[in-house]
Amino acid sequence: MGRVAELAGVSVRTLHHYDAIRLVRPSARTPAGYRAYSAADVERLREVLAYRRLGFGLREIAELVGDPTTDAVAHLLRLRGLLLERRDRADAMVTAIDSELEARAKGLKVTPEEQLEMLGARLYDAIGGAYTATRRTEPRIAAQIWDALGDARTVLNVGAGTGSYEPADRDVTAVEPSAVMREQRPAGSAPCVAAAAESLPFEDGSFDVAMAVSTVHHWGDPIAGLREMRRVARRVVVLTFDTDEPGWQDRFWLTRDYLPEFATVLADFPSLAGMAGAISARVEPVPVPWDCADGLFEAYWRRPGAYLEDHVRRAMSVWTRVGPQAERRAVRRLGDDLDSGRWAERNSDLAGLDAADLGLRLLMA
Which InterPro entries match (predicted)? Predict the structure, then answer.
């Protein structure tokens, strides 16, 4: 253990802790009978330490390295993407800061738009690199979406991102405007076209069904995008969010108690009735499981500590939209309430729930 600690640059105490919590357990034996690290153990330790140094919490790391569908190569690709995204974001911010410093040195006025350039011109280009770490297909939500696809053989996935929820047994074509997201699509995934939902480059009726999952709220004109989907496909399936219900902000404790700015983020979002009406769709609620594998905004409703983890929040566009001041305040207050027990007392009714209706809705036309 001492030799492994020396090579890894960590303390023996850290390795003992990982062993105690069953994160990395030495499984081999020395000739004298002492426990030792096998090659597989060292590989797992490497992954744990890499995620740790990227700011992941031990609970999230345990879920990542314990995922039976992810091998060493997948972890390396994920880590590479995270590191490249961090490097690229830092380089872009340095460039923007240098430009502003140069302008100020010349006595030039810097507009608010120019000041915001360091945050990135496109939302997904700013947050997209974090998606592969926490945004994965949730099987129970996927089953509901895929059931809605019915007997469709050709599927257009609009706002496809990294490819979550794309059915493997259909002929899928993806549409994604963000280069950052397109670059993270796994090898062998569906072909992806760089285009926006509001102007799909396909003939009328080109597909059996067009689907869109948790993306409509990012479109410049959601209604136009939905109508485009209806134009190019004979059926439409969309996972979106309901803001029609009175007091909808209070459905989720995070927006109710810590992030009231969430209502502002969706202030201009079309009504659910308006979206359904635009494509003549029926509406079905989509419950969020308590152990949801997809790290969407509502995923951790029974695991509140996850919202204290920076890398978890980075894969949720809401935090970028509300701004750093609101984010810091919400995280600080949530952390205080978790430490004091106030959160548990206020939300004791959630402990026995396996799933919750937090406003996700499936439109089917």
Answer: MerR-type_HTH_dom, MerR_fam, Methyltransf_11
Task: Report the distance separating Cα 212 and Cα 201, nearest Å.
Answer: 16
Return the bridge partners of 189, or none: none
Q: What is the pLDDT of residues 123-174, one digit of tens each?
A: 444 444 455 556 678 999 999 999 999 999 999 999 988 888 999 999 999 9
- Identity of residue 340: S
DSSP-derived secondary structure for 134-187: H----HHHHHHHHHHHTT-SEEEEET-TT-TT--TTSEEEEE---HHHHHTSPT
pTM above 0.70, yes or no: no
Exposed / middle / buried, residue 312 (Cβ in 10 Å: 0-12, 13-18, 19+): buried
Contact in structure between 300 and 135 (CB atoms under 8 Å): no
Beta bridge partners of 238: 212, 363
Amino acid at 226: L
| CA 103/CA 235 separation, integer angstroms | 52
Distance CA 14, CA 184 (A): 32
CB neighbourhood size of 17 (10 A)? 14
Tell me, what amino acid is at 19?
D
At residue 150's C-alpha, the angle toward residues 147 and 151, to 5°, is 140
> What is the phi-psi region of residue 323: left when phi exceeds 0, alpha when psi lies from -120 to 50, beta otherwise?
left
Query: Rounded to whole angstroms, how far apart are CA atoms 262 and 112?
Result: 22
Q: Quick check: 211 and 246 in contact, CB under 8 A?
A: no
CB-CB contact of 282 with 236 (8 Å): no
- State the DSSP string of 185-230: SPTT---EE---GGG--S-TT-EEEEEEES-GGGSSSHHHHHHHHH
Q: In this predicted model, what pLDDT tens digit does every residue of 283-326 receive, in sequence order?
A: 999 999 999 999 899 999 999 999 998 888 877 878 877 888 88
- Residue 364 identity (one-letter amino acid): M
